[in-house]
């Protein structure tokens, strides 16, 4: 299905684990330094770009053109688990409706998704070219000088950006389900079953 | 003879880096295609692998990085007697800076003391260049770009490990490797390639586990015991059901490569390195007459 950003809570709460979604509209990027920065104090300047939209865990390769504009050269997701301590608070404080990343997140974020009405979108790790093609325009960038290219907060316009819902706002997590099933299988293979 | 300047070696190494970053080796692409065939039509696993295969084609066609995390450049150079290892290492470091300026690599090195990205791709220990003398007249370069996501799920075990019922023997080694694959789930960008080493110390064991990742996926380990281990772990890992990206499915690993080193009586390490599906290997042989042969 297709989803336009920013979007409202009802739409997000209708999404379920396993849904394949193509995102269009404006979103912001942010990873390790960005999450620390967003938590440390309220950053009013980025709030309008974040409310109702999603934050994308990515450290892109970016090309700067002669006219001063930027374009994304390669932009696949980075591992989300590192933001587990901060994510729920960032979602709540900035009114995010979701997160894009890879590898999934833990119980604290899952609870945050339920509380605030947001989902975790899993992009295909390593698919930097396919995903960069979906990034149509770089609107602006925050903290570029301080954090460097991969860690800056890039505000981008995307079109039909392909993702899978792997954690929803009802407590569902594909990651928890696959982990549990593979653990049983491992125990069976190694003869460790209780 | 190989009387070339540092600048010439730098230019050659930039070409090797460009190939590693943008052109996935054919054996890896083939393994991904075979994995795709095993997955059910319409499944999340099939969809993930379709995207991966499309991404590989796009990157190759445009000579753009397959993945934005262009990783740590790990390099092994064999050179003839008498060549300067400082020249080769310095040339490779410069090649990383030039490749970064050309967006073949992302500025991927952070100085942890200053907590700042160096901006040029290089920092102490990045790239890691290992030079070794050999009897050939030419120079062989083999490198990989190993991303941070997969590096983070690497694991090191000490035997015995009671929780895994793993004793100090080859069966114990297998148990550790399977546990590492389970623990990685999809976080290392599965389907992954496993490089493992038993024996060695904590440092040498991990290094050997990474060197194993230079092997072609379709090769066979010449040591029968290790060949059997590689096959058994490959089969069992693909029964875990983790699948591409951890979405579930039957393609969890694309290959398992195992080596060993001597150990102390007191130590028995099992070091496991996980390589993402974007197994960006490249190799080249530079002959004395200046010709280049690309190695797979």
Molecular structure report:
The complex is a heterodimer of chains A (194) and B (296). Chain A is an alpha/beta fold and 194 residues long. Chain A has one domain: fumarase (Alpha-Beta Barrel), CATH 3.20.130. Chain A has eight helices and nine strands. In chain A, strands 2-3-6-7-9 form a five-stranded mixed beta barrel. Chain A has a two-stranded antiparallel ribbon with strand order 4-5. In chain A, α4 packs parallel to α5. The radius of gyration of chain A is 17 Å and the shape is globular. The termini of chain A are far apart. Chain B is of the alpha+beta class. Chain B has two domains: 6-23 and 66-147 and 280-295, 60s Ribosomal Protein L30, Chain: A (2-Layer Sandwich); 149-275, no CATH class. Chain B is 37% helix and 21% strand. Chain B is globular. The interface between A and B is large, with 49 and 51 residues.
